[in-house]
């Protein structure tokens, strides 16, 4: 953590633990080293820290008291769901409380008429769709961790998934949340209608990475399950042609439910792992899922098939049944662990780019890959421009993690340079905090800090994450030039 | 026609900030009835216009805020695309910036999403006269707080919109409207039954014992849906939906105060006092939006809406200013803090949304 991000805490840990135990059952307040260890990191295990104490409240009133207490004593608080986040957003604060929402696991209500589910934040993403299934409904955002990740974390990160182009992100699929402020006050944001009065605080909270409040209840929108889904697989001998094929589908007025691209290394890793029958000689494959009514899907499958051939696909396959559809997807869904088998460690990046920039970006990544002597497999949510380069490395080789992080940073800066963003769906957290200095200038970052202060003036919620201090950027920025200007000229260099 | 007046706009905001003078942001002046009156020096954004980037295959358009809405819609429809939230214009002069600042969406809203859902990024001038860019031109972007969406519906009280990037979608291959004679309760039942199944619904309304439902999508899908839901076909449907969106139907030509009530779609009766329970009401958005013509006192209807976990706003007239649902004390505090964060001297459209904001 940067020294400008430190929070001065006024309390001794023993006193804090005593106070927590006065209203939360003592087995839900963890402070022994071995009990704290499981909480030292989230899905980004390269960053680790042991919190002062972990507390697992069971009721909203207890969360209010925990936050009120932390506010009173100026103790930092980091909220945590399932800990599957990939940007270190739930990395504990060494001088702070780790507030786990793991016990908030009930589905409070499913209302099929209103097509909503009201759930506690610790409910798993997939569990919502499973519970809604009997009504023919489901919750659309499907991050790849959906078996394990929880809805509270999804809202905090504005999680996406493979169906975003058609069905949107978390922000498009929630209707109301209840949050607890750092003062311990409960606020209801959003309503039962499709909009609410005043500022769009629902949008502001979504993706705010635990910096503005702690989510204790979420009402999500449910959608009717599509009558039918069909997948086509197309192989290309050139990544550029695959990119053009995506543009041609969109230009034809078709919005696929999912449109995924994998490059040669990702294809072979996935094929070795799950034997999905992918063509190994292809430079890129596209998986295109079409869903909707029976008639619509039939019509679009024919059109997309033609478009693929027209775009120069060397091979086009249509899944002949549900089994084959799932097999086609299996390789894509297993791409991360499959790549993980190629190397002791891998580092997953998450930039978004305007789709037309794909060839240029892939070429630059290939050049950087040679320069850093680290192989990269590319998995791409092609429909919405969200690129996941997976850098293969071995943390046991001295200096290799550092080289990987630097390489990853370069990729993100490349995304910004072509008009994209440093994070499409994983969040900034701890991981991309330096790259925020590249994407935003001093005034924009100051505006973010002012937004934060509107909710949390003392900076106690998840300190040091998501938005860098100007001093951090000055230090980092010494090596970087933003929009052609030396950033932060008025700050002294360290 | 295209011109970049961002420098003049920024200078005007900067001097207003120094002199602490209120500014009244003006685009096409088409939605002046929406919200409260603002007293201030006019800040005219309508000369800051022009489409800056539009690539149909990227599904994104970026334009200056003063660009007329109809110009945006024209360039999109020339390429077989549209603004999916079907915004009302209320005048030929409506601008893109005003459309986003008001976050008003039309009949397709319940099925496609609101203006805020399609907002990808924007460039603004905050109340200190600083030029800031948030979001971008890509579909997925979680870097920093979602300040862009915060601008949608803020009515210019947090920043002057300079540029806006929106996600766009293809125009459906076919559209058809079916209508049914029924009462309100039957209409809501039908709408809920249909909404639970994957039908290509794109608009719905109920008024005067007629339920209308629009279907949009691939030709075969729309044809199949028509045979599933039945009803009578209608001829002048596209005019009907246009006049509904623009509030040009007879229903809206009335001197009675017009309330816009947003609530859960399955609420049958608002539970208003007997004097008002038979007031004329038009339903949209599958039941989630009600237009009510009524002399019901503001605090009565707004407390009723609050009990139903919804909200009610009064649309203004030349004689009476509009009024939004009061906020709970906790939310009001956050609103005031945010206003302070963006516009510390309270110079941008002060009071347009709420007194003191």
Topology:
The complex is a heterodimer of chains A (494) and B (357).
Chain A lengths: L12 H9 L7 E2 L2 H4 L16 E3 L4 H14 L3 E4 L16 E4 L6 E5 L4 E4 L5 H8 L4 E2 L12 H7 L6 H4 L6 E7 L5 E5 L10 H5 L8 E8 L1 E2 L3 E9 L2 H13 L6 E6 H11 L9 E9 L1 H17 L4 E4 L3 H12 L1 H6 L4 E4 L2 E2 L5 H15 L3 E6 L4 E8 L6 H18 L15 H7 L2 H14 L14 H8 L17
Parallel strand pairs in A: 2-4, 3-4
Antiparallel strand pairs in A: 1-2, 5-6, 6-10, 7-11, 8-9, 8-10, 12-14, 12-15, 13-14, 13-18, 16-19, 17-19, 18-19
Chain B lengths: L5 H14 L3 E4 L14 E4 L6 E5 L4 E5 L4 H9 L3 E2 L13 H7 L6 H4 L2 H4 E7 L5 E5 L11 H5 L8 E8 L1 E2 L3 E8 L2 H12 L5 E7 L2 E8 L1 H11 L2 E2 L3 H9 L12 E5 L18 E4 L4 E5 L4 H10 L3 E5 L13 H14 L15
Parallel strand pairs in B: 1-2
Antiparallel strand pairs in B: 3-4, 4-8, 5-9, 6-7, 6-8, 10-12, 10-13, 11-12, 11-15, 14-16, 14-17, 15-16
Describe this entry's structure for a reader.
The complex is a heterodimer of chains A (494) and B (357). In chain A, helix 13 (358-372) packs antiparallel against helix 14 (400-417) and helix 15 crosses helix 17 (470-477). In chain A, strands 12, 13, 14, 15, 16, 17, 18 and 19 form an eight-stranded antiparallel beta sheet that branches. In chain A, strands 5-6-10-8-9 form a five-stranded antiparallel beta sheet. Helices cover 35% and strands 19% of the residues of chain A. The longest helix of chain A is centred in the C-terminal third of the chain and has 18 residues, at 400-417. Chain A is α+β, with helices and mostly antiparallel strands. Chain B folds into two domains: 2-170 and 335-342, Uridine Diphospho-n-acetylenolpyruvylglucosamine Reductase, domain 3, CATH 3.30.465; 173-323, no CATH class. In chain B, the strands form four sheets. Chain B has an eight-stranded antiparallel beta sheet, with helices on both faces. Chain B has a five-stranded antiparallel beta sheet with strand order 3-4-8-6-7. In chain B, a hairpin with a 5-residue loop joins strand 6 (119-125) and strand 7. Chain B is globular, with a radius of gyration of 21 Å. The model of chain B has no long low-confidence stretch (mean pLDDT 96). Chains A and B meet through strand 9, helix 7, helix 8, helix 10 and helix 16 of A and strand 7, helix 6, strand 9, helix 8 and helix 11 of B.
């Amino acid at each position: 953590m940067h020294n400008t991000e430190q929070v001065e805490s006024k309390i001794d840990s023993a006193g804090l633990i005593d106070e927590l135990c006065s209203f939360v059952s003592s087995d839900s307040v963890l402070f022994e080293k071995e009990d704290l260890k499981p909480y030292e990191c989230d899905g980004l295990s390269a960053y680790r820290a042991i919190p002062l104490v972990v507390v697992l409240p069971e009721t909203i009133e207890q969360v209010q008291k925990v936050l009120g207490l932390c506010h009173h004593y100026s103790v930092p608080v980091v909220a945590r769901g399932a800990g599957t986040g990939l940007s270190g957003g739930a990395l504990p604060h060494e001088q702070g409380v780790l507030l786990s929402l793991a016990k908030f696991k009930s589905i409070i209500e499913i209302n099929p008429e209103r097509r909503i589910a009201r759930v506690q934040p610790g409910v798993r993403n997939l569990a919502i769709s499973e519970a809604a299934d009997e009504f023919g409904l489901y919750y659309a955002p499907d991050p790849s961790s959906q078996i394990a990740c929880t809805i509270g974390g999804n809202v905090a990160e504005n999680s996406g998934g493979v169906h975003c182009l058609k069905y949107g992100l978390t922000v498009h699929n929630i209707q109301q949340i209840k949050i607890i402020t750092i003062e311990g006050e409960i606020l209801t944001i959003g309503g039962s209608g499709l909009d609410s009065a005043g500022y769009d605080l629902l949008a502001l909270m979504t993706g705010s990475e635990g910096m503005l409040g702690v989510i204790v209840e979420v009402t999500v929108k449910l959608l009717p399950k599509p009558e039918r889904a069909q997948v086509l697989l197309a192989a290309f001998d050139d990544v550029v042609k695959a990119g053009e094929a995506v543009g041609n589908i969109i230009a034809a007025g078709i919005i696929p439910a999912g449109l995924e691209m994998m490059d040669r290394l990702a294809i072979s890793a996935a094929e070795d792992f799950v034997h999905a029958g992918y063509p190994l000689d292809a430079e890129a494959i596209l998986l295109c899922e079409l869903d909707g009514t029976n008639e619509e899907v039939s019509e679009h499958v024919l059109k997309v098939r033609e478009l693929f051939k027209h775009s120069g696909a060397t091979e086009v396959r249509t899944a002949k049944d549900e089994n084959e559809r799932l097999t086609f997807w299996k390789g894509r869904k297993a791409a991360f662990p499959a790549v993980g088998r190629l190397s002791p460690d891998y580092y997953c990046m998450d930039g978004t780019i305007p789709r037309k920039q794909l060839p240029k970006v892939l070429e630059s990544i290939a050049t950087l890959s040679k320069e850093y002597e680290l192989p990269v497999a590319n998995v791409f949510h092609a429909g919405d421009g969200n690129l996941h380069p997976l850098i293969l490395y071995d943390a046991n080789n001295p200096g290799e993690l550092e080289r990987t992080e630097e390489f990853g940073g370069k990729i993100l800066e490349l995304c910004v340079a072509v008009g994209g963003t440093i994070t499409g769906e994983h969040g900034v957290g701890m991981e991309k905090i330096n790259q925020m200095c590249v994407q935003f200038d001093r005034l924009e970052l100051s505006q973010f800090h002012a937004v934060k202060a509107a909710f949390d003036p003392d900076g106690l919620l998840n300190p040091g994450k998501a938005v860098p201090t100007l001093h951090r950027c000055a230090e980092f920025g010494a090596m970087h030039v933003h929009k052609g200007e030396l950033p932060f000229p008025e700050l002294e260099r360290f | 026609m295209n011109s970049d007046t961002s420098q003049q706009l920024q200078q005007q905001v900067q001097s207003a900030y120094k002199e602490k003078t209120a500014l009244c942001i003006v685009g096409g002046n088409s939605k002046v009835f929406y919200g409260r009156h603002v007293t201030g020096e006019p800040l005219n954004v309508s000369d800051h216009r022009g489409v800056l980037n539009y690539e149909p295959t990227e599904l994104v358009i970026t334009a200056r805020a003063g660009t007329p809405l109809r110009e945006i819609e024209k360039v999109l429809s020339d390429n077989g695309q549209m603004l999916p939230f079907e915004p009302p214009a209320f005048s030929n002069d409506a601008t893109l910036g005003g459309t986003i600042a008001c976050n008003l969406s039309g009949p397709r809203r319940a099925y496609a999403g609101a203006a805020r859902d399609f907002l990808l990024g924007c460039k603004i001038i905050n109340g200190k006269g600083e030029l800031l860019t948030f979001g971008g031109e890509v579909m997925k972007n979680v870097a920093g707080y979602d300040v862009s969406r915060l601008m949608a519906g803020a009515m210019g009280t947090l920043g002057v919109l300079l540029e806006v990037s929106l996600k766009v979608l293809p125009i459906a291959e076919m559209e058809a409207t079916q209508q049914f004679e029924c009462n309100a309760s039957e209409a809501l039942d039908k709408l809920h039954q249909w909404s639970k199944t994957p039908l290509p619904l794109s608009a719905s309304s109920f008024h005067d014992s007629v339920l209308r439902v629009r279907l949009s999508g691939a030709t075969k899908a729309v044809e199949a849906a028509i045979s599933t839901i039945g009803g009578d076909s209608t001829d002048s449907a596209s005019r009907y939906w246009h006049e509904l969106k623009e509030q040009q139907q007879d229903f809206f030509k009335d001197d009675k105060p017009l309330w816009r009530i947003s609530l859960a779609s399955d609420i049958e009766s608002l539970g208003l006092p007997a004097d008002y329970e038979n007031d004329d009401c038009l339903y949209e958005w599958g039941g989630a939006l009600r237009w009510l013509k009524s002399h019901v006192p503001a605090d009565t209807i707004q407390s009723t809406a609050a009990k139903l976990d919804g909200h009610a706003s009064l649309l203004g007239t030349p004689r009476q200013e509009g009024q939004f649902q009061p906020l709970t004390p906790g939310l009001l505090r956050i609103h005031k803090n945010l206003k302070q964060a963006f516009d510390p001297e309270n110079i941008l459209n002060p009071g347009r949304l709420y007194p003191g904001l």
